[in-house]
Every structure is written in C-alpha cells, then in structure tokens.
Design brief:
Layout (H helix, E strand, L loop, with lengths): L17 H11 L6 E3 L13 E2 L9 E2 L3 E4 L13 E9 L13 E5 L11 E4 L3 E4 L2 E4 L9 E2 L10 E3 L7 H9 L5 E3 L4 E7 L3 E2 L10 E2 L2 H11 L3 E8 L3 H9 L5 E5 L10 H8 L1 E5 L3 E2 L5 E5 L2 E6 L3 H19 L9 E6 L11 E9 L2 E4 L9 H5 L2 E5 L11 E6 L2
Parallel strand pairs: 5-6, 13-16, 13-17, 14-15, 17-21, 19-23
Antiparallel strand pairs: 1-12, 2-11, 3-10, 4-6, 4-7, 5-9, 8-9, 18-20, 20-21, 22-26, 23-24, 23-25, 25-26
Length: 410
Amino acid sequence: MSNADDPRMRGFRRRAEVADVLKLLEERVKPLPPRRTPPRESAGRTLVEAVAAPCDVPGFDRSAMDGYAVRGEDTFGATELAPASLRVVGTSMPGESCTSRVDRGQCVRIMTGAPMPEGADAVLMAEDARTDGESVQATAAVAPGKNVSTRGEDIRAGEMLFEAGRRLRPHDVGVLVAAGVDYVFADRRPSVNVFATGNELLPPGLRPRPPKIVDSNSPMLAALVERDGGVVIHNERTADQPELIRDMLQRAEADVLLISGGSSVGEEDHVPAVVRELGELPIHGVAMRPSSPAGVGFIGGRPVFLLPGNPVSCLCAYDFFAGPTIRFLAGRSRDWPYRRVDLPLARKITSEAGRVDYARVRVVDGRVEPLMVSGAGILSSTTRADGFVIVPRDAEGIPEGATVTVYLYA
C-alpha cells in the first residue's frame, strides 16, 4: 500500500455507503456446503433435504395403560355388580418380548409400553379390575382397540417428516430419533475466529488497571455469534504489531474472521494494511455513526470483518454487517434478529444527512426517548437502552412526534 493510500493519521478520503457494503456481502458470500448431521446435533439447523421416516413409530402394538390385555368382546356387558371373569395366562413387560397368547376368557397382565400379546385387542385398566388369585374380575367393558397404541399410529414408514428449509426445533430432534433417522442433510454452523488487537487489552476475567482495559468485545462477539447460529472455534488477542497480526490471520481456519480493534486511522491501526497484504480490503470506512472505521475484506475467499475497538461501534458494525453474514451461512434470514415496535418519538434525534445513524433509545410510557449518550466507548449505554433506532442516510435527524421503528434488544 502506497503512502497516498494509507489513511493512518490522515483520515478517510471517502466512506462506503451502508447499502453498498450489504450488497457486496450478498454478492461475495456464498452458502456453505451442507453436511451430514446426526439428529442429536441438528437442533437449530436448517434442513437442506427433506427427511422421510425409515420405520413405523411405534414399531409394534403396545399398551397405553397399566392393566390387562384382553379380547374386548370378553368384557362386553361387564359392570361392578356383574363383572366378567378372566383367567390370567401371562405377563407382558416393557422392553421384553411377549410369548403369551390370549384366547377366549383369558387375559395377560401388562404394563404401559409393553407389547400386546397375540389374540388381545384391548387393555382393561387396572382401576377396572379386581384380582382373585389366577383370575381377574373385569368391572367395566372395554371396546376393541381401547388403550392400545397400534403400530405406525404416530409415524408410518416412508412418511415425510420434514420438508427442506425447516429449521429444526428440539422436539423435531426427538421425532427424528424416534423414527430411527440416522442422519439429516442440514446447513453447517459457520465457524468463526474472534480476534482482538490492542496493546492495552487484558484478558476477560481480570480487573482493569491503568493504563490497561479488559477485552470486553471478544466475549460480547462470541455471544452474538452463538445467537446467530455460528460457533467460535478460536479466540485470540494480540498486540498492535503487524507481524503478530499477520501471523494470527495466517493461522486462521474459520469460515468467518472477526477482528476487533486496530481498524481506524491511528498510527497503531495495522489491521487494514495486513488484510490488504494477505487478501483484499474493498471496504474500509463506512458512512455511519458509530462504526465509521469498520471494514470488510476477504482472505482466501473468507469474509473478514474489521470491527472498531470502541464497544458500541463494535456491536453496531457486527449487527449491520457480520451478523447478517453469519446468519446467512447458518441458513437463517439476514434480517435483524430483534423484535420491532413502531412508536412516537418523545424528543428529536439529531443526525447529519449522508450517513446512517444507530441511535440508542429507551421506551418510556409508550414513547421513544433517545439516550443522551454519543460516545462509542460507552458500552453500558446499550444495557440502559431498550433498543435502537436507525436514522437513514438521507435524513437530517427525526423530529419529535414522528413514528419510528425501534429494534428491541430484549
């Protein structure tokens, strides 16, 4: 990179439009190939192929009650005062084969989930039976089929369980396992490296001490990645030295790289130059507030997101650019993952035309109040806020009383 192209200590000559950054990502980032996934690992994943049941569920006729397996017709007319007498000829227990056979006037003691014996077509509940040694007195009639779970009544072999495009829920996993499905073809969970640069950074878990600060961006980014369907496979911090940053990026093996810090125009902001050296950096500097020093590059075809070190800027750049990309790679919608409400603005939001603004707000008595905080390093402002409002690039602020869309953090 020539000195003329180096923005350090010079500032950005131009900033990319947010819409152009999003368009670039949609054009350049391609879906990850699907993978064969066992059902127990498939929750939250999106099916690429439909899934059919390989066998019946249940796979045999079984009792739905504790009681006695009977021939229903043998109990017809039975009452408390005029019970039907049946002889017990065996027992059927869950998980064990039943070799007994029920003929006229006979029954088999049976537990819930146990296989129905040959000849029986109903289960007399224990509450409707009086035992007398080797015989049972049925005090109520039970119709054929009553209290019996028949083979395939839940799922039939060959039945379509789920169509392609379904995002599997925890109980879907239970159905897949119950139906004997060995694997499904689902989208991959994109792997993500979370990197942080800065001479001033301490690892999470330590207390800040002047002139050091704790790396709060890395755990925040890891949680965001998990929310969006990705998995962090490596997390690393390094000092603001080009050779260390270069080595860190050359060792990266993930589908997506997130780099917090070192993206601006200070003397120690080496990340943009290193990304250019190892790949390409089509975006450096975005017309938005906060997060104007954000960037998007590619190394070996993998997207690299340059996220400002200031915590709110880091969150904003992630939500605008990295989050939609990770969700897309995880088979999810690129849309914001926040609930939206439309409410009137209690006070105006000031902005400048030509940039997109990410304004933190509170909702008080059904009205939207902008937080009087502009610093991109005030991370606690996001916890005091209920959400945020996006001010479009062509607007010179939003006047009091206007209806705005609030993206709610909760």
